[in-house]
């Protein structure tokens, strides 16, 4: 094909989806944060390691690491999903107070209602009063016993055959509001954080170490592989580790990657 025509085709978007030429792993023995490692791999026309199978994981572990056996970053990170009720439904009705969701703190993914009927955010591990609700008749409510974390309140309601309160409209919001005797109580809305690969695409393979991910530091949103056994752990993204890059994208039409938002390079 004429070189000029080839350039025109590439610039016109007539290129196939970007995929690595080779499934090679490269160990980079430089301590960096997760984001720094991610950018480094892109600069080298690669991706922060993508692992789609046990064979991939083993191949990565067989990469030469010059005797290093501790943790190394891979291209897996945690990001917030949609606001979701405990029954699995995505929320469409909201009664936010003065603080809007886009100002949310990283640890504040569980929702409260105050005695004005306004919703707010709180760390899910805090103990607060709560209201349970019949899963059919949403106007049938009863107050939970004592104060609990959001997850414990959810479990308490479920074990009693109820749900942590779900609020689909202003009428139910007023009903739940009437149960608020203190400053604020838990309702059944949260924004669960899900694990994604930095390279867009479906991939359900995981190899978590037993008990992981556990978010033990409250901000463990990036994944590392333990080179001694190949299992994965969740780590603070600002921790510094060596890392694995993956693939070879030199000569491709472009790179499209996912990291909290779409990025095009």
UniProtKB/TrEMBL annotation:
The keyword Cell wall biogenesis/degradation does not apply. Keywords: Signal. Pfam families: Lectin_C (PF00059). InterPro entries: C-type_lectin-like, C-type_lectin-like/link_sf, CTDL_fold. Residues 1-20 form the signal peptide. SUPFAM superfamilies: C-type lectin-like (SSF56436). PROSITE patterns: C_TYPE_LECTIN_2. The keyword Thylakoid does not apply. It comes from the Eukaryota. Residues 25-133, 148-246 form the C-type lectin domain. PANTHER family: C-TYPE LECTIN DOMAIN FAMILY 20 MEMBER A-RELATED, C-TYPE LECTIN DOMAIN FAMILY 4 MEMBER K-LIKE-RELATED. This is C-type lectin domain-containing protein. It comes from Dissostichus mawsoni (Antarctic cod). The lineage of its organism: Eukaryota, Metazoa, Chordata, Craniata, Vertebrata.
């Amino acid at each position: 094909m004429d070189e000029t025509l080839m350039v025109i085709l590439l610039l016109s978007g007539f290129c196939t989806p970007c995929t690595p030429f080779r499934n090679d792993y490269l160990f980079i023995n430089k301590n960096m944060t997760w984001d720094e490692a991610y950018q480094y791999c892109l600069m080298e026309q690669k991706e922060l390691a993508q692992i789609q199978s046990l064979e991939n994981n083993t191949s990565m572990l067989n990469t030469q690491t010059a005797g290093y056996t501790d943790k190394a970053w891979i291209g897996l990170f945690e990001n917030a999903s949609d606001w979701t009720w405990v029954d699995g439904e995505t929320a469409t009705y909201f009664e936010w107070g003065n603080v809007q969701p886009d100002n949310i703190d990283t640890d504040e993914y569980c929702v409260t209602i105050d005695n004005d009927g306004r919703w707010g955010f709180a760390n899910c591990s805090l103990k607060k009063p709560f209201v349970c609700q019949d899963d059919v008749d949403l106007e049938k409510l009863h107050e939970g016993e004592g104060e609990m974390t959001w997850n414990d309140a959810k479990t308490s309601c479920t074990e009693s055959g109820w749900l942590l309160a779900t609020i689909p409209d202003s009428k139910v919001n007023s009903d739940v509001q009437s149960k608020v005797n203190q400053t604020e109580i838990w309702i059944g809305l949260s924004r669960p954080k899900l694990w994604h690969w930095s390279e867009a695409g479906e991939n359900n393979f995981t190899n978590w170490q037993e008990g992981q991910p556990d978010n033990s530091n409250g901000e463990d949103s990036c994944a590392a592989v333990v080179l001694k056994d190949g299992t994965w752990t969740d780590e603070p993204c600002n921790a510094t580790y060596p890392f694995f890059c993956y693939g070879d994208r030199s000569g491709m039409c472009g790179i499209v990657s996912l990291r909290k938002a779409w990025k095009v390079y």
